[in-house]
Amino acid sequence: MTTAIPLTDSTGRLKLRTVVGYGAGDAANNLAFTTATMFLLVYYTDVAGISAAAAGTLLLVVRVFDAFADIFAGRIVDRTFNKRLGKFRPFILFGSLPLLLLSVATFSVPQIGESGMLLYAYLTYAALGLAYSLVNIPYGSLAGAMTRNAGERAKLASARTVGAILVGATLGIFVAPLITPDRDLQSLFTAMTLGFVVVGFVLYMWTFFTAKETVVRDVPKVSVRQSFAILKSNKPLLMLCLSSFVFLTGMLALSTVQLYYLRDVLHALPLYAALSIVQIVLTFALAAVVPALVRRFGKRAGYATGSSVMIAGGLIVFLSPPSMIWLAFSGLVLCQVGVALVNMLVWALEADTVEYGEWKTGVRAEGIIYALFSFTRKTGQAVGGALAAYALAIGGYVAGAEVQSESAEWGIRAAAGLLPAVAALIAVVIIFFYPLTDARHREIVADIARRREARGEDEPIDPTLSSAAFRAADRKDIR
Questions:
Q1: pTM score
Q2: Mind listing the pLDDT tens digit for each residue in 42-95?
Q3: N or C, fewer C-beta in 10 Å, the chain?
Q4: What is the DSSP letter of 219?
Q5: Whether residues 354 and 243 fall in one domain
Q6: Segments forming the whole domain that contains residue 422
């Protein structure tokens, strides 16, 4: 059941400052999240002096913990409501500053011996992950409480995407080229994360004061037995989870060692900035053409195409001689095309599985479906980051060395190219057997609409609308 509180704007449209303010929240999120994704491994190996193998295990353990932290945070959020501040905004108000300060602590490992440093790194990164979940999950859910209008939710989804892209590009253009062996990297990371505390808190407060909750949802309680029954009967969801897990493993391996590849294999670290600019252009270009491509070929075909592009890009990255810099760079660009295309379509596919589950069981279990999908993606992220670090360790990577050995370069190339290509190939094979085509989904949505209308429900699903428009604003992106 959904109860709407009257909006101050009679048209129901969100004001520009509200949309921009919501996007500012995801920019703040990514000051912590993307910074850790891009730089934490290189910080552990090159600054803190933690071995690549130990860092890989750390990333695996803590990121799996983080996946469970999402479930814990979701339960806390479900049980929270403040009459004055609402259900989700209190987490942004009270959780944002601890999150940003924990980012500083994570990038400030003291030199207290190998065991002491590892213990400190485990505790701070785990605390950062939990704090991130307690802020990001309410933030993602906030969009659904701001408006019931699908078009307005799409605006919020676009705003958060732009916020995340701008932060990622800024880090790639201005910070990544500075990560060189001859620089005082600890001072660099300390200054950067302290600056992010100020900037991030301002952005979070912008979101808090402009994003108001106008829709209150009473979420139906689903038992554990019902949850497993729903998941067991949803074959499309299970196959999508498996394919997404594998693809994320390859994607995170690439993003984790991309800096190493450009710096230590190609010796062309300034190209990181160029790659970040290319990524921005690709994202907006694909956003303009993907809807037309989906209408013509379908979401499953688009997902498979993106994975295939990733395969080609990964093989080029792995096989290119270091002297052929622009060939290797073109491989990285192809990987970015594949990643962007898959990430644009995977959430639409996830939304389709919600309707399939409702059609199959009669229960619309968006929460448990979203939780499982998010969990598998986060575990894929954990495995990908760990495998990348293990590849560095197997190759014999030496932190701070001006020139790496051939075996170390091979390990970096394997993590940046071979692993993403193999992962994408497996993802393609799995998605080939994905049974929920666009045509079948339209039939299912129309059938659900007829059932709801027959029951006399107030809000039947409009079979002419894609559920992706509704889910896009509620999604939690794992970049």
A1: 0.82
A2: 999 999 999 999 999 999 999 999 888 877 887 787 677 777 888 888 999 999
A3: N
A4: P
A5: yes
A6: 220-473
